[in-house]
Amino acid sequence: MKESLIYGKKKVVTGNHAVSYGVLLSKAEVIAAYPITPQTQIVELLSEFCASGLLKAKFIKVESEHSAMAACVGAAATGCRTFTATSAHGLALMHEMLHWAVGGRLPIVLANVNRAMGPGWSVWTDQNDSLSQRDVGFVQFYCESNQEVLDTTIQAFKIAETCLIPVMLVLDAFVLSHTSEPVDIPYQEDVDKFLPPYKPKYFLDVNDPRAFGGLTSPDHYYEIRYKIEEAHRKALKVSEEVDNEFYQIFGRKYGVVESYQCEDAKLILVTSGTITGTARQVIDEERSKGKRVGLLKIRLFRPSPISQIKEILTKAEKVAVIDRNISFGHSGIFCQEIKSILYNEIRRPMVFGFVIGLGGRDVVPDDIREIIDFTYKADYPEEMVYFRGVRL
Amino acid sequence: MRWQFANDIKEYMNQGHLACPGCGGAYAMRLALKALGKNTIVVIPACCWSIIDGPFPLHCLEVPVYHTAFETAAVVASGIRAALDIKGKTDIEVLAFAGDGGTLDIGIQALSAACERNEKIIYACYDNEAYMNTGIQRSSATPYGAWTTTTPRENFKKERKKNISEIIAAHRIPYVATASIGFPDDLILKFKKAKEVKGTAFIHIFAPCPTGWRMAPELMIKISQLAVDCKIFPLYEVFDGVKYNINYQPKNIPVKEYLRLQGRFSHLTEKEIETIQKEVDDNWEILIKKTRI
Ligand SMILES: Cc1ncc(C[n+]2csc(CCOP(=O)(O)OP(=O)(O)O)c2C)c(N)n1
Ligand code: SF4
Ligand SMILES: [Mg+2]
Q1: Residue B158 lies in a domain
Q2: Ligand 2 mean position to B187 CA, how many Å?
């Protein structure tokens, strides 16, 4: 593989390989991972990069995802830039160590390919795997295109290392992971300029022997957690700054949220992941028919871009949140979040929640049109959540 | 017995640790660090040592310590190893120091994987034959006959102790050794050997827990020596999983003398003690046979 020829070119790559290229360009130093469909190609390509010497990293072929995250924890605590990738059951198995990465303030980057949880076994996309990890304290980005996947991977390291918080970037199974799109592969020099080597202040150092993560009494624990919350608030600001800086060098930016045709919209759809692309197309059509509809894409899920979301949504009369996930016994998770953000606003829109496309069932333009029509006609959200396309 | 190294070498464990009096696990760490010295990073999973090291922001060791989740000592050590190697710090040793629960039970998966990868780490298991941190529950290292809070006297532990050293030796890593805090020089020499090995070294340390064994703290050394002399815990090494070397010829003391010093065995009948004696004798024969291969 003459990989030296790829830099600065457009290359047709899958979402998975976009992650691998992002990690290569970011010069990760330690990678630990365990195979799981549909993530495996990310680490397969990375192990080729390591084997060919293109990426000077140690690749630890661990025996489980729990160990993958634990190995990253050890390596990051020793001062290395670290990466892992997983999906669904792998992410669930990692759960304990996700807490460790956050509590240890370790800037590990994790790519999660959104896959539905078993049983029954499904390899297709939905968001319940990553959203089940909402409260561990990882920053979470949801991506819409392969270019965004690559760019977010590089941005993720910078945000993580600036705030000392691990970052998870999320891409949809198959719709992105295994679908090829043309992607600009940046020049290495540009990425080096954007992302200098990781130089932590504290690490496992025999010349400064400290203990990390030991017994912590109620006298200290709360403050340490509060500092994690502070780091999250910082990460919100830093994510915007990093995105702007990225734009200066690479000419692309995404925002922590993206508002599309929202200025005069009476109805705003809220989406995340690849459903956004489908919705964008429908919005264009509806606009041409004179309907005042807009779209809010949530890219950064945690930390929550609260003021950005408020500013955009409070101008609308109705909001329709599309969730490819379900918190059983309640509603879609993005919908809950949007409602909680809007609740205290004096002028707030009605929020309709739609659950759709679980386990990778296709979400097509007609589904989005139906959601728009339904929300348009309804006076009030009678149901906490509307299920779209259930065939019983 | 002359304890040459144990008394002479610099200390890396300070006063102010939180172990109970007579804690074998605490002494084991003290000795291990004497052997390994300053250029060592220690990984401690959940176990009594998570407490012994001292509460944040204090700690009692003069080497860096990473406290980690119960089942992850071997793999966090592997991650640290990888990071040190990529940074060119190959002169630093990584010591995973875990209890029997963290080694034989919940951590065996990650440990087996680290051995299979032949990571350049030293993995030490201080074996106090139960989950002590959580208040003396049985582990797979708890021997037949023992009382614990989950194996009450009326229904004491009926299963035999898992033979972890043999399991690890079967991975054919370069160095496996048993050691005892009752034989400090032997223990120190083994850690020194472990340091020189090209790959994973595993040291299984007999580390009495007076609190959990219902035993007087001042017996910590005596009971450790008795365990060896009764052939309950023979001192031996295995090189590359095949070459066995017995380090000490036991005095062949009846197991009864070892058992009767500990409250955790006080309910055992003569017949049950005979069962234990027979098992111990059989195990010794098996070990001797292995040295002849
Ligand atoms: C996943 C998980 N399960 C359970 C525990 C609770 N726990 C902490 S230490 C421990 C027992 C440790 O036993 P061992 O490894 O033998 O070390 P010792 O306490 O005897 O020194 C247990 C069960 C935990 N910390 N993590
Ligand atoms: S309970 Fe046992 S192992 Fe734990 S500190 Fe006390 S003596 Fe040591
Ligand atoms: Mg124990």
Answers
A1: yes
A2: 20
What residue numbers bound the domain in which B163 lies?
24-291
Q: Classify residue B113 by burial, with Cβ atoms within 10 Å: 0-12, 13-18, 19+.
A: buried
Per residue in B29-52, pLDDT (tens digit) is: 999 999 999 999 999 999 999 999
B175 within some domain: yes
Say whether A182 sits in a helix, a strand or coil.
strand
Which tokens go with A174? 């198959």
CB-CB under 8 Å, B53 with A77: no
> CB pairs below 8 Å between A and B: how many?
155
- Kindly state if the Cβ of B133 falls inside 6 Å of ligand 1: yes
Per CATH, A3-250 and A257-387 having the same topology is answered yes
Q: Distance, in angstroms, between A49 CA and closest chain B CA?
A: 15
Give, in words, the CATH class of A3-250. alpha beta
For A102, the token pair is: 């956050």
Task: State phi, psi for B157 to the nearest 5 degrees.
Answer: -65, 125
The best mutation among B30, B50, B128 to test binding of ligand 2, ranked by most ligand atoms within 8 Å of the C-beta, falls on B128
ipTM over 0.85: yes
The two beta strands, B236-239 and B175-180, are: antiparallel
Q: Which amino acid is at B14?
A: N
Would the CB atoms of A213 and B67 count as touching at under 8 Å? Answer: yes
Which residue blocks in chain A are alpha helix, DSSP H?
15-25, 40-52, 65-77, 88-103, 128-131, 146-163, 188-194, 218-250, 275-288, 306-313, 333-342, 365-377
Residues of chain B with pLDDT under 70: 1-3
Peptide bond into A119 cis (omega under 30): yes
Residue of A nearest to B107 (CA): A67
CATH code of B142's domain: 3.40.50.970
Cβ contact B48:B133 at 8 Å: yes
Q: Judge whether A9 and A188 are in contact, CB under 8 Å.
A: no
Is the pLDDT at A367 greater than 90? The verdict is yes
The answer, yes or no, to whether residue A1 has pLDDT greater than 50, is no
Distance CA A332, CA A322 (A): 8
For the whole model, what pTM was predicted?
0.97
For chain A, domain boundaries: 3-250, 257-387
Pocket lining: B211 vs ligand 2, CB cutoff 6 Å? yes
A257-387, CATH topology level: Rossmann fold (3.40.50)
The secondary structure of residue B130, as a DSSP letter, is: S
Report the mean per-residue pLDDT for chain B. 97
- Average pLDDT over chain A reads 97
Chain A residues whose CB is inside 8 A of the B200 CB are none
Q: How far apart are CA A383 and CA A373, in angstroms?
A: 16
A58 with B55: Cβ contact below 8 A: no
Interface residue of A31, A63, A102 to substitute, partner B, most B CBs within 10 Å: A63
Residue B16, in any domain of the structure: no
Instruction: Identify any residues that bridge with B151 across adjacent strands, giving them in sequence order.
Output: B148
Q: Is B215 in the pocket of ligand 2 (CB under 6 A)?
A: no
Which residues are within 5 Å of ligand 3 (an ion), measured at CB?
Answer: B 99-100, 128, 132
Quick one: pLDDT at residue A4?
Answer: 59
Domain count, chain B: 1
The dihedral through the CA atoms of A91, A95, A98, A100 has a sign that is: negative
CB nearest to A211's CB, from B39, B53, B83: B53
Residue B6 lies in a domain: no
Interface residues of chain A, partner chain B, Cβ below 8 Å:
29-30, 32, 56-58, 60-64, 66-67, 70-80, 82, 96-97, 100, 204-206, 208-217, 220
CA nearest to A105, candidates A32, A161, A170: A161
